[in-house]
């Protein structure tokens, strides 16, 4: 016992001759050694606790997607649906996007973790029912969440308008609690609604700017206004944003970009863009005779609606998929493309397939004009599509004709794909077009107050996002 009490002092206090440094290096080494020993003891304790927790929860909690599938198989077997259990799914109601939510896109790497995966219909329904039971989320917002998650609302402008309209309904039905300040309490309520919207689908640049605009207007509302006056003011500001920043801005771009279309031109566009559609119709109303080539892609086939409206207006139109792009591009004289966002380095962040059209046109020396409102401008920079992106429902890529049993169709069904455990499905919604493939950027410039709106339509090489 005496040896154990006297052993530590020589190790810490007694130093041999010649080892004493004027700056106390030995004392520093002793402190570091003590800290290292303490870290090792803590790490060992954590390891023991983790091992104990894992052993106690292994019997009751599934650890991975494989255990979840096994649980689903057991429940399906009890209900009499043995065939769906053998397929390794939870029945015909389940879809491939639910499996991808568990295992990730492109394997478990999820494309470096920067791709937002879609939420399954079951998870969305559970979240909506919980929010409805708590009465914290407005019914208009819940309806919007359903439309966003099912891609019933498409396009950057449509999404921004739909979100502002839903939040306007929230403001119209709002009542200030007793003892609360309107702008502070309303800002908290609106933030709750926005959080629910983001859970259903990630917020894009245009919707983010619209929401920030509304939050700013709420924060600066005059405290001397009565509740009804303040709400009327906020609703008027919402209409002002929709009218000036979206509708009027689009009309200005359409009127100026239509001047770039000449007689005999063959204009190509991709997918469906409200600004591009308005530009083509405006040029046709001005008497310009031209043709349009609409390039489309599955599974949304959004270009079909554009083709119908162009044909109704009497514009000769050619429709083709991305696979026919190389055959149609030689006869094109101008390319007009819309975008969901314009990054700060001038790169359009648009629907997947836009980059392919721009690069193909650049290879054939065809001018490419990007039409974009200023409220879609982003301060973010991306060099590729994997930095930030969003994945769609992968089950849309497969046949839904028969989900109960295998068919002779050339397209795989979601049930058949569920049997292939080694098959991973990727459906990215956006891509990034390098700025060097863009000939010009058409955008409006909104001035302060009620002044007029100007337009910028310049060669990209002479202007870098400086509007």
From TrEMBL:
Q: Where is this region: Disordered?
A: 1-95
Low complexity composition-biased segments: 45-59, 72-95
- SUPFAM superfamilies under this entry? NagB/RpiA/CoA transferase-like
Matches recorded under InterPro entries: IF-2B-related (IPR000649), IF_2B-like_C (IPR042529), NagB/RpiA_transferase-like (IPR037171)
List, as start-end ranges, the regions of compositional bias called Basic and acidic residues: 28-43
Taxonomy, superkingdom: Eukaryota
Q: Where in the cell is it found?
A: Cytoplasm, Cytosol
One cellular component term from this protein's GO annotations in UniProt: cytosol
> From the Swiss-Prot or TrEMBL record, what is one GO molecular function term?
translation initiation factor activity
Pfam family name, one: IF-2B
Per the record, the major location class is cytoplasm
Cite the record's note on assembly.
Component of the translation initiation factor 2B (eIF2B) complex which is a heterodecamer of two sets of five different subunits: alpha, beta, gamma, delta and epsilon. Subunits alpha, beta and delta comprise a regulatory subcomplex and subunits epsilon and gamma comprise a catalytic subcomplex. Within the complex, the hexameric regulatory complex resides at the center, with the two heterodimeric catalytic subcomplexes bound on opposite sides.
Question: Hey, which family's this protein in?
Answer: Belongs to the eIF-2B alpha/beta/delta subunits family.
* Name the UniProt record assigns to this protein: Translation initiation factor eIF2B subunit delta
